[in-house]
Batch of 2 targets.
Target 1
Amino acid sequence: MNERNQWRSLHEEQDAGTTPEMKSQEFMDGVTDAFDPETLSPLSRKQFLALMAASAAFAATGCTNYRDKGEIVPYNKKPEEVTPGKANLYASTCTACPQACGILVKTREGRPVKLDGNPDHPVNRGRSCATGQAAILNLYDPARLRAPHTGAAASGTGEVSWDRIDSEAARQLAACIRDGKQIVLMTAPVTSPTAQKLILEFRAAFPGTKVIVYDRFHQETRRSAWELCYGSAALRPVAWEKARLIVALEADILGNEGFTVEQTRAVAGARDIMVSNTFVRLYSVEGTMSLTGTNADYRCRLHPEAQLEFVLALTRAVAAKLKLAAASLPAGPDLAAIAHRRGLPLKTLEHLVDDLVTLRGKGIVYAGSALNTDVHVAVNYLNELLGNTALYGPAEPATAVTVTPPADVASTIADMKAGKVGFVAHLDVNPVYHLPKVLGYAEALKSVRFSVAMTDVENETAQLCTYMLPVHTMLESWGDHTVRTGVISLQQPVIAPLYATRQQEAILLRWMSASTPFSELLYQEYLKRHWESAVFPSLGRLTDFLTFWQMALHDGVVTTPVSAQAPLQFRKDALASLRLQEHPDRYAVVLLASPYLGDGRWANNGWLQELPHPISKVVWDNYAAISPAAARALGVESNDLIEVSTESGKVTLPVFVQPGTAEQLIAVSLGYGRWNAGPVGSNVGVDVTPLLPAGCLTGPRVVRAMSVSKSEGSYALASTQEHHALDDTFVKDFHLKRHIIREGILEEYRKDPHSLGIERKEHESISPRVEFVGVKWAMAIDLNKCTGCNACVAGCNVENNLPVIGKEQVAKGREMQWIRIDRYYSGTPEEPLASHQPMLCQHCDNAPCENVCPVVATNHSPDGLNQMIYNRCVGTKYCSNNCPYKVRRFNFFNFRDHLADGYYQQEPVSLMHNPEVTVRSRGVMEKCTFCVQRIMEARQHATEAGVTFDGKQVETACQQACPAQAIVFGNMHDPGADISRYREHPAGYDVLGELNVKPNVTYLARLRNIHSEKRA
Amino acid sequence: MKKSLLDYTLKVRIPLVAFVAIGSFVGTYYLSRAERDGVGYAPEQPILFSHRLHAGTMRIDCKYCHTSVTSSPQATIPPVGTCMNCHTVARKNRPAIIQLTKFYEEGKAVPWKRVHRVPDYAYFNHSAHVNKGIDCVHCHGAVENMEVVAQVSSFTMGACLDCHRTAPERLAAIPGIKRGPENCNACHR
């Protein structure tokens, strides 16, 4: 297995000769010698010394009392639940994306400092994702609007009072009713039953109000197919845990499609070698290289436009195998023909058919939301044929909203242009940026008499409105969210509003009843009343409402009984509408959700901009991902520009040659290229909305390209994939022997667990052997479970106060993340296999970094931690040079001062910092500490309780964030601890163990659940 | 002539100057040590609060006011509300209490001057020490005898380590006490 040639990038695969040279250097070119005297200060040395002397003298004489240590200011009346120095946890709901995960918010002295999953929440079960982890930054974003402001459409400029907004809105609303003009509410899908009720009441109060719901990453093609097949628009979510076989068709279920936290947990949970040695088998048939594809046991590269003929061929093959009479399906090529034409391995397709048949009733075929309705109909039929409908859970709650059809959106926009609309309110949405440019929304908005945008940071829409109304972020808001039948997740504020902001529901409430003055309690009371009258009685609880309410807020989630579901009746006439389309020999563009920025909402969040793309490792940019063959055909390389045009418009994009991309396909992320997102997010990447046709409001997100051509110039993408090169390839085959990645085949492992060839050798050592007594820390990472989603990286960023450094610095190889996900390719550039490996400080027993530090700033603790002491470090960087894993990070600058004119040094960002971790400044080295602050907290609790510290109950930030639960941490001297079992496991191995550094992170080899014939 | 002058410079002047310079440096270094470490620092507080009266004469337990010392890294200075537990009734007419009541009624916090401080990069944990049975007096001195609180011992890393290394001898009264940790991460992170 390890005989494969592994490579990290095309560059390395083709070995242009520079790669080995690059790896032999500690820093990237130009990093250490780019100090241009021209750009240095013009002060001469003498002048400098004179100035220093003068300032020292002034400072000395200016000191009034050098012994003064400042003040300690206690509370006047201390809130009962706050103890300085101790964290409080509050249950709430994350509204960063429509998954609405239950979260626990950690607050210190009243300030939220960390978000993590709520273990009691039945959907995400204590886990979270990268976006959710980093979302806390938006509360403290210095760019937040602090009071209502006028927009471009207002007379006058500057701040306005809420009173003026309220009275003007009331006047305008009354005028609309009087003049018969329309009132429009623009909103994203509302997951809150109470907010939905409020919107209905708003419509009742102001008749003629239109509500336009849109979502860039809607599920409408899936939903309309469901309606065609089953006569109901209520989708039935898949019970992923039960699946033994998953076939994902252009569906990035482990990346950003659907309930990714739940899906990742389910897939990873079904690949747990410590629990069972039968795994779920994951097939991915996709054109873009996605996280699901890289984690699949079999990945087939298929153009998204060929998905329909593929599913139909698969259905026929399955029906033939089952000897069932398939319904009349449109004629099309069979699997062999598709395999031949599209270059798919026929053997894999045969396995797929076999597996679908063998595991019928226990598998699921799942198509991505970017695909059209026809594919979803065909997939529904295939699942029906196989009895896979057994895996469908209860229907979606009634609150699941469908988005407004494109025709209605277009007619409303036409009305706006014709001056028939007198009032538009944007409920935390940004249609000027989001909606397809062909709809001309920005133009239409100018013809509206009065428009407001409720938003936390100024955006493209708010800029054009009459007023921008600042609203609470999710951590200051009340709410309830239902995204799964039987689960209501409650959202409560964990901090008083930082500025003169209001909850958007409260703004509507205030307008609806002009006589009631505004109060912060307005929506809270409304929510409570709704729960008291509508939710509480149906639960049949024995307590009174207030007790129930307190308990519900404490738990953060209320589960209600789910009624029995009517059996699904498949309508075969749905198949009649299926049409196979001819594919002209032309490129198609698939428009993806950005891995971390969502629809662009998180553009001003530096942490998320700087999270490397899970596959390409590109930061701070989107790009056109094309296959190596397409790059040759277009005559481009990575970093060249291409111009892509569709019927709707054209854009110029940088190229990234992405191994594994289908031919004739361009994959590009939406959510970039915002022109008014704030100091961090403005003009990052390219806005590809011009490529979107109007139909994409409910239609597929695969668009036929009119032309694709090379454009003049180039653009440098910053990718971290060749930074911190772990293996020293001075001879090309060297890293094959180093077993950094170990993989095997599950079936062979089952026959003989030792077939992986992992041997544990005791090496001769020149270092004295150190005996550790008591607690000794170690970590294990299960490569079967890790999907490479970056949640750990984001979690670590927040917990350990890591700075955002910006694209330029990343390009110089200075990224600061303490944990990174290394991605290795093997196989051919066209059909690569990928492996993900989280890499962090290994806390080696014989740590090479410790020997070379001239000031002993890094040394070993008795509990096995490799300690890094910032106040002792003088910044020689010898340790980083000597680290075989390349996990040490150097503060070349005070990076908080170094991004966008000290953006992250402005108030109130410092309030976000974890007070238990030092904020590092320029000139010191840093690295993973195994979250020593959490270890020390657990020790304190043990001392408090008067018990011996046994090392249980310590969870590192990466481990806590990991939706796959791939990370295990604990005391390796505790034979009952999970970590001890991992360290003894036959699939457990050390990376670079032969260096005898004795790393304390054990990796569990990845076992591919493939049929064990010899692989090509 | 020239030679003897050189001799004089070499033999007398330079050693003398060096002796005076080094001597005054060493002398100042040791004499100012306590002051540089903050020992004896007793700032004037905004309200004349007497620990001698409260903790000494009236024998109020330290933990009555410094409530979180057993459960949190920080001992915490009490909120004004704690003072008012008694002073809504007790000694209401004294000038200091009138001053205190004013703070309370205006909802303002009292800006107490800080007496003890360790640098931000050192994470001292009160609870870990107090729960081991180490009395407050060991670091803070006999506060119950102080009219105005002053720092009595040095809060340098040397002082911390000194105690950590000799805990069994120093704190012989506490059964089973072990030496404190000496690794960096115990305090720095």
Target 2
Amino acid sequence: MFPKIPGKSIVVVVLIGVGLLVIFWWMGKNPADKLSESLPGTDNRVSRTDAVLEEVNIGEYFERFGDAPNTFLESWPRFRGTNFDNISKSPVKLIDGFNGQSPEILWSYELGEGHAGPAIYKGAVYLLDYDEEKRADMLRCFSLADGEERWRRWYGVNVKRNHGMSRTVPAVTEKYILTIGPRAHVMCVERESGDFIWGLDIEKEYMPEIPFWYTGQCPLIDKGKAILATGGKSMLIAVDCATGEILWEVPNEMDWKMSHSSIMPYTFAGQRMYVYSAVGGVMGVAADGPDEGTVLWSSAEWNHQVVAPSPVCLPDGKIFLTAGYGAGSMVLQLGVENSRFTAKILQEYKPKDGLACEQQTPLVFQDHLLAVLPKDAATLRNQLVCVHPDDCTNIIWSSGKTSRFGLGPYMMADGKIFLLSDDGTLTIIRPSTREYLQLDQVKIFDGHDAWAPLAIADGYMVLRDSKRMVCIQIKA
Amino acid sequence: MKKNKRFNRRDFIQSSIRASLVVSVGGIGGLALKNSTGRDWVWQIDPFECNQCGRCATECVRNPSAVKCVHAYDICGYCDLCGGYFIPGAVKLDTGAENQLCPTAALIRKFIEEPYFEYEIDEDLCIGCAKCVKGCTSFGNGSLHLQIRHDLCRNCNECSIARVCPSKAIKRVPSDTPYMIKGSFTKTTDT
């Protein structure tokens, strides 16, 4: 006879058994067994270093169309103008408004897709275009008065459409014109004649990583020397404009990369220097004296994948750095300790928390910074704002949610800000440290991605969108 | 001899079947025409109004949401550094999960040729969170955008997403034009 087991005990045993089974099943089950890992390399990308470099004969072709009479004297000779501040010092009085009419377009010219900006020198407009038919970087010289093309010098180079192709502003002096093409081909020509002087294939000679969407660095001529940020084997180099001889090179021991930012000359504590915001960090390189071409200071704390705006160097040693794609901004304070330069971080923040820019470089007005915020700046996105460099997170004023702009350029002339929106709308603003004062606004043309820097000389403004350059007169 | 033309039973059945087939096909065609030309309303997202708040993923009565990301290839830049694919400040531009914005890896990146990459959406994985849309709109051409998929949408009279959409981007649209795909659908300046 088996002992009698109470029914209650059977239920308990069964429940314990079932419970144990459930626990075993639960412990053996992988809740993520239907998920797959996202591992690097599944996009099948080919290394950029596998690309075969093209032989480029810089400055190979030239064509002259004729000389136009010239009565103009003023210049806007490079990116951010004569003093690198994007402020025209011309005494010519400019319009305050448009009287309800769009200004007459004096001339216009179809260009290769891109964002290359013009430089103006005594009645001649210089632009490094990309000719899509000839597949060539093409330096074009136009007459400011009527837009007639005077000459062009070009060389074949294969550039694919990638948010535009051209995107730099030539540097022009009395003797030289210096250009950098999308794939970092540097060309120096004689200004008036367009005669070729020398070329430098940075892509081939220095093996840098060309930035996303091609080179945006605008070249610099300083005291007869071409100052260029190469990346690759070197970081910065100086080239004699007359001969093409390399005068000095800053070795790239940090393995930083070329950015879209341009080199800005700056003087602090009696030392002239070149300030460059690279991908990897920011540095100051001596521009003269016995240490010329050596690094005075650097900081790898400023490290972002895409850096387009140039450093804004203020008289008190503050340097405002900003970049897009969620990077935000940083304010550095330069100092001198034990005869050595130091760079300390004063502020660092995301674009939603203060002044930041994606493409353009801020303006300095009465010790304040003015700029259009990027799209990721939360409620103030795309608004023109004003801050003081002592606290760039304190927005003093903004243009308001009914006055939003895009990625387009802005500059100051005759005490007014001229701001171009992506779609070709030009806004005139009275700069102030207290409030936003919009004077007028008009659509100049049906534009698309009008991002290239503006140029003003002799009361003429030259502006462009991704496909067309136009000239208007804004003399009062 | 004259043929007997009288209708026999076989002919009658055959004719009846033919007639019922014609009526059925005609009826189906008519109903299809009515459905395709009718002015019923369905819900859709205006991509130009959407501010990518992320509520489409959590507020829809369907789980996962009936809202999916769609891609307007004709306005995509095919960039290596894609603001819709990579988190800002990604350590490396590769397909590692730590660099991706999408929480479910629904955005698939493929190398085409230097410098172009193509981005494709796996709708089975997409939860409509709009993280990629926000990145693409902020830093790119805005080719990634959200749409309500009508094969998934219950078309509730009181759309639970529309009730909370902060930018009022979810609108009733005619059922014969149920999608607002960027590129082909362009916002007019007067709206």
